[in-house]
Hints:
Elements (H helix, E strand, L loop, with lengths): L3 E9 L11 E10 L4 E5 L6 H9 L6 E6 L2 E2 L10 E4 L11 H11 L4 H15 L14 H13 L5 E5 L7 H18 L2 E6 L2 H7 L2 E6 L2 E6 L1 H6 L4 H6 L6 E9 L3 E5 L5 E5 L4 H4 L6 E5 L4 E4 L10 E10 L4 E7 L2 E7 L10 E6 L5 E4 L11
Parallel strand pairs: 3-8, 3-9, 6-7, 7-8
Antiparallel strand pairs: 1-2, 1-4, 4-5, 9-10, 11-12, 11-14, 12-13, 14-20, 15-19, 16-17, 16-19, 17-18
Amino acid sequence: MAEVTLEYISKTYTGDKKNINPPKAIDDISFTVRDKEFMVIVGPSGCGKSTLLRMIAGLEEIGEGTLSIDGKIINGLSPKDRDIAMVFQNYALYPHMTVYDNMAFGLKLKHFSKSEIKTRVMQTAQLLEIENELQRKPKTLSGGQRQRVAIGRAIIRRPKVFLFDEPLSNLDAKLRTQMRIELQRLHRKIDATMIYVTHDQTEAMTLGNRIAVLNKGKLMQLDTPLHLYNNPANKFVAGFIGSPAMNFLKGNIQNQDGYYFIHESAGCRIFLGQAIPEALKNYIGKPIQLGIRPEHVFICEETENEIAPDCRLQVIAYENMGNEQLVYLSLSEQTLIARRPPLDTIDAGKEKRVKFLTDKIIYFDGTSGEVINLNP
């Protein structure tokens, strides 16, 4: 299919004359989407992910930098000449046309023969399992069926690159799960280059071969889902990727007959060991942040006396999810989340002994939020 390369792409909106130095909507972004890769661009609302996708599609002008497909620079090409198909959030189907005509419309504009159009429509409909819906109008279809038609209209053109702009956000939770599976299956079958934009980190983690995390127009990190989860580059990525979100604690490291992380409230002292990496020694007495996933926060039972807890925290609430239990704990003015196997009850309002799995802790610079590399 195609390799898409972005080199130093930037975009600034200058419509507000009162703002002399407007911030960049897209700020110097460079990465390559490999041939046949499923790349997901994820980030919070306003981070620039849809703007970036629209620049790839040709719907937004590129301010600075170059965009190329298979080595050919396409900055100046109109959308129709880029050989790209886009699936929008709102389906964008023609309400007066049948499913068949919606899917065939683009081919008719390109003057394909009726026999070729019919062949492609039937092949695409079978691939998406909507061959029995071809004579229906969009208003008679479910949300999932409409989205399949929109995807089918893109597939039928056999473009070099597929672009998806939050296509599942209008669907209910159960249907979103089903459509995620369908999109994975579809990617394997057509073996195409796909770029998918979403604000939902669950979609990003389950769909992407690699994920580009954006924030405020900047590329925070690009990596595989598992590497993003286990090795975030900074506090933003660590907090954005993962559900429930990573716990963060502010404090400093002190040497008190062994090294401890002392929480700023002084209500929590995490023993780090008799020796710590040299990189952490540079932060002794300086502000530092500690990050730890909910599954690495261990609630000790009172009978487990051989385990020395790091602190005692009050249980605020708990949620039984069936396959797991989330326990909310109060530490000073913040809430920590612990994830553990499902248990019937836990005493809300009472204190519990808590132990942090220190080998799973990630350390962040207290000022910049960047990860402290313990193995330079």
